[in-house]
């Protein structure tokens, strides 16, 4: 009879075992290791790490990372959060304007000309409408990508602050991948919005 283990029991057991093992990898207090780093230093590439021994006959390799990729990924985190807050405010305001328009139309159904003028006056300016108005599908995509990339970065980065083991720069790599993906998405998103703005300007 073949034994089938429980997935969740194995999952919890392995993670607890890894956590205990990593907690034991602490730095010797009597040894000064200049390449150890703190999680707060990783997003800004404040320190590198060696990938070899320091013996005289060894080739010296120092892992630093590409500053352009590293810093642009970190900036993308803040830019995305600001854009998310901005889009939320704009969409709420647009919904309020639409509600006001509907109420005004119901009150002035007999005066079609006046209603048309008031309807135009309540519309956002052409620049605001083109640069901020998003379809529901675009908005859902923006939020979905944010959940994947920003959420993935948080889940891979924040646990580093509660780990008791000695830390090095390469421990940030899993979180770094998500910042790179987010940066690529923001470039694509902003280029798409710019194209919409230019097309709208040409039409106007």
TrEMBL record:
Molecular function in Gene Ontology: dolichyl-phosphate-mannose-protein mannosyltransferase activity
Record has Amino-acid biosynthesis as a keyword: no
Polar residues: compositionally biased ranges: 118-131
CC annotations in GO: endoplasmic reticulum membrane
Catalytic EC class: transferase
Pathway: Protein modification; protein glycosylation
Record region (Disordered): 102-131
Pfam families given in the database record: PMT_4TMC
Keywords assigned by UniProt, alphabetized: Endoplasmic reticulum, Glycosyltransferase, Membrane, Transferase, Transmembrane, Transmembrane helix
Catalytic activity: a di-trans,poly-cis-dolichyl beta-D-mannosyl phosphate + L-seryl-[protein] = 3-O-(alpha-D-mannosyl)-L-seryl-[protein] + a di-trans,poly-cis-dolichyl phosphate + H(+); a di-trans,poly-cis-dolichyl beta-D-mannosyl phosphate + L-threonyl-[protein] = 3-O-(alpha-D-mannosyl)-L-threonyl-[protein] + a di-trans,poly-cis-dolichyl phosphate + H(+)
EC number of this enzyme: 2.4.1.109
PANTHER family for the chain: DOLICHYL-PHOSPHATE-MANNOSE--PROTEIN MANNOSYLTRANSFERASE, PROTEIN O-MANNOSYL-TRANSFERASE 2
Protein name per UniProt: Dolichyl-phosphate-mannose--protein mannosyltransferase
Organism listed in the record: Linnemannia hyalina
Gene from which this protein is expressed: PMT2_2
